[in-house]
Structures are given as structure tokens and as C-alpha cells.
Amino acid sequence: MREIRITKLYTYLSSKIRALRSLIVASKDRLIFVAIFIIIAIPVIVLLSHSYAQLQASSLFGYKEHAFSVLQNLNKNITADLAIEDRRSYADYRFIRSVPVFGGEEITMSELAEFPLRSHYVGLVGHFQLDPSGNLSTPVLPDGVLEKIPMVDREQRLAIRNKISNILNTSGFPAMSLATSLPLSSSAEKQDDSTHKNDSKLIDQIYKQDLDISSTQRKKKNIKPRVEQITETGDFAFGVESTKLDTTGLLVRLINPETTHSMEAEIDFFQAIVDSNYIIFHRTVRRGVDVFIQGFIVDARVYLTNLVKNEIEKYKGVTKGNQQDPLVLTFIHKKRPFVAFGERNNITTELLSEPLQAPLSEITFKMYTTQKAPGGEFVFFIGFLMLAVLAIGLISIYHVTQSRMKLAAKRQDFVSAITHELKTPLTAIKMYAELLQNAWVASEEKKQKYYGQIASEADRLSRLIQNVLNLSKLDGNRWNVQLRMAKPKDVLDDFVSTYSKNVEKQGFELTVSSDTDANNISLMIDRDAIMQILMNLVDNSLKFSKNADYKMIHVELRIKDTDMYLAVRDYGPGIPPSEMKKVFQEFYRVENEMTRQTSGTGIGLSMVKKLCHLCNMRIELENANPGLRTKIHFPSLSI
Q1: Which residues are 252's β-sheet partners?
Q2: Is the pLDDT score of 616 beyond 80?
Q3: For the chain, which domains are there?
């Protein structure tokens, strides 16, 4: 008995050391696998990030190339538009002008005087001219001595002139200071001399500033003004609208009569002033000492929209359905959006930001994309998939490793348990044999008792060895399944007759009950397998219910519908619900190996489940409160 206690202590200490070692190894392995994941994941992430950056750069390069193309076309359109206007004669800004004909010249209406307005500029408000005297005139409306010409659409023409006047006065145009002094009609002759003197000073100041700007720009760009020859007929036609009747009825010319002494006019290139709604293009014309400002006004949004119309249609045509346009075109003036095309709520990347070509250099053209790099989602998906596969692979390897280690630990526990289980009957047999051999037992009754103990321990040892051999056969697929037609009731009766004595020796009562209908039913069963199953189930019940108040093992044979089953029920503590599935694992025991109080190797239920699987049967566990009921379901009777 002392030797048995020493063996148990050794088993306990060994198990505790192995558990501690397993915990340390598991923690170490976990850290190793995490380190492997990080070492592999870092270069994978760097590689994918680099791939995504390259993809994005490639995509943005295409967009940027398109943006530069749009800007180039935009500037070409601006240049082409202004080239037409730059070539226009200064005399076209009057209602009438002289044109060369065969044999001389004739005076005719300017092409800018046509109504309704017709121009290559989309969004044109109208053309205008500022005389040195401060007069605002427009080609669509005759002025001077011609203002009395009867015209059917005079009101509409006058409305254009007034609109031009209002725009000039509210747009920041240098001549807006003349709002109170510029005569808009024939009332100019009513101004007194002092007013005209003040106006002349202000006009001279504005013109001087304009001349200085033009001169500076010409010097920087080495651009010479265009020179246009003046004919006598042309001078007369141009001067007619600068001649008015005074209060006495005499003709008064409002421009310097010495202008005709110089028979040529210098015409500068156009400049531009931009406000929130309009663009004012203007140029300076010098006829001798007289300086004129000529120009035209366009609606900014309409004009700019027309310039980029083809590009807008081009990238709108690329989008399908309700998809958002991938590009956004914006014109910026004074750091705020001036005109914009496209959805600006989801801007992701700026492609280009450049000022327009002179004279519209105050306007900055910007182009954005609202579309992420194509294929970005695919790169992220591949990256996520690679990392997921890597993580799943490492986790799987870790769990396989841990399961192998746990299985190895269980096998070690099994070796310890089987050693203990083998030593216990051997020690008892040896002890009783020595007592009988040395004739230390005088009573015949005790001798018979000891003989019986030796036989019982030998049977126990035989069953233990047979279980190990059977498990080895099952693991190696060497169990010879022999399915034959037989009555489960006959197998149950044979088991009771051969095993009831062993149950009774351990102080338990083995009872049997069966349904009447089940007694004569035959099924394809393996008799040896069922005997082995019953033996292991009853042994489990004996071991785990030895401290039960009610020491009875009850075996049932039942039929429910098409289901026929054997049930073994004890009155022990049962099995915790969380352990129900684990008890079928090899070498698993509900009790802690270091503190368990019952004998056994943990292979009984594992072997039972394998036998059931081989014989097309099913095992089920349920707590009977008290006790445990184990059901072995035969193949369905309906098959």
C-alpha cells in the first residue's frame, strides 16, 4: 500500500511539472509565431504600399497629362479669340466706318453695329469705347451728330449701352470713377467748363496709368503696338460721332482736331479686368495726342464654359449611369472659386493649378480628380487576403503544434496512468501471492478470499490490457467489424450473465429492463463491439459513482418510433455540460490529472465512440440528475 501511495505522489508531481513546462512552451511558441507573422507582414505591407503608390502615380500621371492638355487647349482658344479682336480696326468701335472700295472709300455701318449682336464670343454683352473727353459710346448706338438717326430697335440698343455703363462702374474698371462725370447721352454739352476741366484731369490720370501699364508690359515682352493708317475719309467717319451741336446750334468736335495731323493710330494689345460676373477686355488706342479705350465685355461663366465645353463633354462622356464625374474644373479669382464644373464635395487630388494665359492671368485654372487610383481596392484586397492567409496559416500551424503537444502530453499522462493502473493489480496480486506462498494465512476462508482477489485483479488487468489492444486496433484501422443479424436483447443478456458478478463484487447492483417490442427485433450488429461498449460504459459508471448514495447500474433496451437504443444509467455526479464533447477525446479525463481521485486511463469513452462509428451507431450523453445516462443508438429500424 505504501508503494501505491508513492506511485500516486510521483504521478502527481510529474503531471504538475509537465503542466508547468507545457505552459512555458505554449507561451514561447505563441511569441515565436507572432514574431514570424510580423517579420513576414512588414515587407508584404511595404511591398503592397509601394505597389499602390506606383499604381496611383501611374493613374494620376494620366490625369495630369489630360489636365495639361485641357489648359493648353484653353489657352489656345483664348489666344484665337483675342487674335480676331486684336486684328479689328479701331474704327470698328464706331457706329459707322470707312471701308476701301474700287476707286476709293465709302462710309458704311460697322459690323459691330449689327443688332442683334453677333460675335464669335459666347456670352458677349457688347463693345464699348471711351473717348478722351469722357464719352462712353458703343457701336450698336449712333452718337454725336448721328444720334438722331431713326432706329426701330433703339430702346434695346440703349439698354445694351446702359448695361455696359453699369458693369464698368461696378466692376473695378479704372474708368468707374467717371460714373458721375461720363456723359451717357447728348447731355454732355450741358456740363459747365469747371466740370469738364476736372473730368479732363481725372481722365488724363486714368489714361496715363493705363499708358504706363501698357508701356511696361510692352518693354517686358518686347512687343510693339500695332500701327494702323488713317485716311481722310476714315478720319471723318471716326470724328462724326465725336461732333455734337452746342446750345447755339454750332458743331463742336469733342476730340482734339490736331489728331488728323498724325495719319496713323497705335493700337495696343488687349488687357482684361475680372469681376465676380464679367470679364472686361480693353485696349488703348492713340491717335496723335488723343487716347481712346476700346473693349468688350463678356459674361464670365458663359464665356469660360464655352472655352472648356469640349473638355467637359469629353470627360462627362466617360462616366456611366449615376457615377460621379471623375474630374473637376475650377477657375479661381482672388483665391475663391470663380467658375466650377463637376462635383467638388469629394475632391481627392489636385492635378494642376496654373494661371491662364495673358490677359486672363488673374484667373487661375485648377483641375482635380474625385476618383481614387483604379485598382486600389484590388491592391488592398490582395494585401488583406495575403495577411489573412498568412495569419490563418500561422494560427493553424500554431493550433496543430499545440494539439500535437497536448496529445503528446496526454499520451504521457496515459503512460503514467496505464503504469499506475497496471501496477495497482500487479501489486495486489503480488501481495496476496506472497501471503499465500509464505503460509502467512492460516484460515481457509481468508485463503479463498485472497484467491478470489487475485482472480479479480487478474481479470481487471486483462480488461485493461484488452482495452489498450482494442484502442491500438481502432487507431490503426485494424478492428475487424463483423456485422451479423442478431438480437440486441440476446447480446444484453449475455453481457449481464458474464459481467454481473464483477458489478456485485464492487458493491453495486446491475438491473436490466427492456421494451417488449425490442425483445424479438434483429439487427445487423457487431456482437463483440457491443459487448466491449457495454463493458466500458459499466466500468465508467462503477468508477465515477462509487461514492454515490444509490449504488445501482441500470441498463435499458428501448424503442421509440424507429429508434432503438441501449442506455446505461448510474447515480453518480454526472458530467458538467461544458465537458460533454471533450470526454470523447483520447486520454481526456474530466478530473484534473494532478488531483484526480478515480482510477482509469481516459480511453474508455474514446474507444466507445470509435466502435459506434465503425458499427453505424451513435452515442449520446445526458445528465439524469442524479447520475449520467449514456445512450447507444442502433441503426434506424426504417432502413
Answers
A1: 244
A2: yes
A3: 88-303 (no CATH), 473-633 (3.30.565.10)
**How many whole angstroms separate alpha carbon 327 and alpha carbon 347?**
9
Per-residue pLDDT tens for 58-87?
Answer: 777 878 888 888 899 889 988 988 888 888
d(CA 402, CA 29): 9
Is 413 within 8 Å of 459 (Cβ atoms)?
no
| Nearest C-alpha neighbor of 58 from the set 374, 325, 315 | 374
What is the C-alpha to C-alpha distance for residues 403 and 407, in angstroms, rounded to an integer?
Answer: 6
In eight-state DSSP terms, residue 138 is B
Q: At 182, phi and psi to the nearest 5?
A: -70, 120
Burial class (CB in 10 A: 0-12, 13-18, 19+), 278: buried
Query: Is residue 460 scored above 60 in pLDDT?
Result: yes
**Using CA atoms, how far apart are residues 557 and 567, in angstroms rounded to an integer?**
7
Phi first, then psi, for residue 348 (nearest 5°) are: -110, -40
Write out the three cell numbers for 621: 450523453
pLDDT digits (tens, 9 = 90+) for 279-302: 999 999 998 888 899 999 999 888
Rounded to the nearest integer, the mean pLDDT of the chain is: 77
The C-alpha atoms of residue 167 and residue 123 are separated, in whole angstroms, by 14
CA distances from 373 to 115, 212, 270, 320 (A): 51, 50, 42, 18
Look up residue 106 and give its three cell numbers: 465709302
Q: What are the grid coordinates assigned to 330, written together?
A: 475650377
By three-state DSSP, how is residue 169 classified?
helix
Other CB atoms within a 10 A radius of the CB of residue 458 amount to 14
Q: Does residue 345 contact residue 328 with C-beta atoms inside 8 Å?
A: no
Lowest mean pLDDT among 52-61, 280-289, 341-350, 525-534: 341-350
pTM over 0.85: no
Beta bridge partners of 130: 136, 293
pLDDT tens-digit readout, 215-244: 445 455 566 788 888 888 888 888 887 776
The 3-state secondary structure of 44-74, one letter per residue: HHHHHHHHHHHHHHHHHHHHHHHHHHHHHHH
- The closest alpha carbon to 112, from 145, 90, 136, belongs to 90
Q: Alpha carbon of 105 to those of 102, 112, 139, 287: distances in Å? A: 8, 19, 20, 20
Q: Tell me the longest C-alpha to C-alpha distance in the chain.
A: 174
Q: CA 85, 87, 88, 90 torsion: positive or negative?
A: positive
Query: Quick check: 212 pLDDT over 70?
Result: no
